[in-house]
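Structure tokens please, single chain.
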Amino acid sequence: MSPIAQLSNGTAIVTTPAVPDPGILTLYMAEDAYQGNAQFTLAINGTQIGAAQSVAAINGKATQAFSFADTLTATQDIAVSFTNDLANLTSSTPGDRNLYVVGAEFNGVALSPAVWTAKMLSNGTSHFSLTEP
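Here you go.
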């Protein structure tokens, strides 16, 4: 399975192998910064977990880890929403803010990088699934 490339508003859905619960989900994120950092929210089964998070790691140079503790049971819908896209491609100082899900871990175990990646070029939500047997 190849990484998600989300080029416009919408929803992308992927599924990953089974994982135990409860646990800590760690997302590795990066951004293309433009007039501020990219921000995202995380929701599990439609419930937002915490406040919006700002990413400061520049894509291709670094990643930033964000950990979320939750009691994950059965099939989980993990939704990462890019909330503050900004682009100015026409001025003499063009720029474009983008968000990247670079990878993920559950309880310290890496989840499939082919599935747990997303390139978010505009506001929208990428969905991932954690499934237990």
